[in-house]
Each structure stands twice: as C-alpha cells, then as structure tokens.
Amino acid sequence: MLLPITIKKKIFKAIAKMAVGYKARIWLLRRCNYAIGENVFIGEDLIIIDDLEDIGPNLIIEDRVAISPRVTLVLYAIPNWSRIGDLVGSRKGKILIGKDAWIGTGAVVLPGVRVGEGAIVGANSVVRKDVPRYTVVGGVPAVEINKLTLPWRSETLPEERLQDVRPVSRGRRS
C-alpha cells in the first residue's frame, strides 16, 4: 500500500528532525520532495513548516549550503481558525537558499524568501525579505550588516578566468 504524500511527508519530516547525522536528515528530506544539492550540511532540529499537500519542490537548497541547528523554514503560514484569518490571510511561498550560503542557529526564514549565493544569515534572525548575494544579515527583522569581498569572487566569465590559471608543477624543484 502506498502512503499518501501528506502522511509520507509528515513521517519523514519527523524522523529527519531527530535523525542522527546530517546525511540521514538530507536523505529523508529529499523523500519529501525538497530539492537539496550536493555537499549540504543540515543541523539538528530543522523545522520545515509547509502545506503537506504541496508536492513541490517548494524548498530549494543549492550546493554547499550550511544550515545550523534549530533553523525554521516557513513555506506556509496560516492563522488556522483564528478570527483574524479574514484580515491577515495566509502566506505561502517557495524558499530558495543559494550556493555556499550559511543559515545561523535559530534563524527563521519566511515564505517567498531567496537567500542569495554566499549569503550569511546571523543566528536568531528573522528573514522576511530576499538576501542579496554575498551579504551578511542579522536581527529581527534581518537587516544588512556587511557585504562580503571574497578572493575567488569575480564578475568575469569562466573563460576569462581560465586565462589566469597556471599549471601546477609536479616535478622536483632544483
């Protein structure tokens, strides 16, 4: 018997939250139709709040991302049966975490946010707007703290960068 996607997601997310080892967490979360790249680290106690019926992928985590423990990714927010529901409505949106980004411990990322390549989100921050590439943000709500200047970052095309590459000598030095 095949389990409906809602039950399957609920079970895999619960097990992933408690799983020993980041590789087990990633394996389980991929079974929930979350797109997770290569060389990703996902810390313990990751909370993903989404509409269980969404078959996604509404969460995209690109290569070499580091997600610290106790991070919350909110893909779907609804006030349930509260009377304010008609006033505020619900929020639903994809979250994309770009290559080489780092999400600090306890951070909360809200629906529809894109965390750019190489961006850093400080611990316990609440991210409600997109974070540009190579930018450090922090606070509640998260604001820009710094821009990163990296030695390997270049706006040139890959072909132009290859012109500066020198072969490595493997012979003996004389």
Layout of secondary structure:
Layout: H1 5-18, H2 22-30, E1 35-36, E2 41-42, E3 47-49, E4 59-61, E5 66-67, E6 72-74, E7 76-77, H3 85-88, E8 91-92, E9 95-97, E10 102-103, E11 108-109, E12 114-115, E13 120-121, E14 126-127, E15 135-138, E16 143-147, H4 158-162
Parallel strand pairs: 1-4, 2-5, 3-6, 4-9, 5-10, 6-11, 9-12, 10-13, 11-14, 13-15
Antiparallel strand pairs: 7-8, 15-16
Helix pairs in contact: 1-2
Structure description:
This protein is of the alpha/beta class and 174 residues long. The chain is globular and about 50 Å long. The protein has a 6-stranded mixed sheet with strand order 2-5-10-13-15-16. A 4-stranded parallel sheet has the order 1-4-9-12, covered by helices on one side. A 4-stranded parallel sheet has the order 3-6-11-14, with no helix packed on it. Strand 15 (135-138) and strand 16 (143-147) form a beta hairpin. Helices cover 18% and strands 24% of the residues.
* H-E string: HHEEEEEEEHEEEEEEEEEH
Average of pLDDT = 85
The total count of strands amounts to 16
What is the tally of helical segments? 4
Please state the CA-atom Rg, rounded to the nearest Å. 19 Å
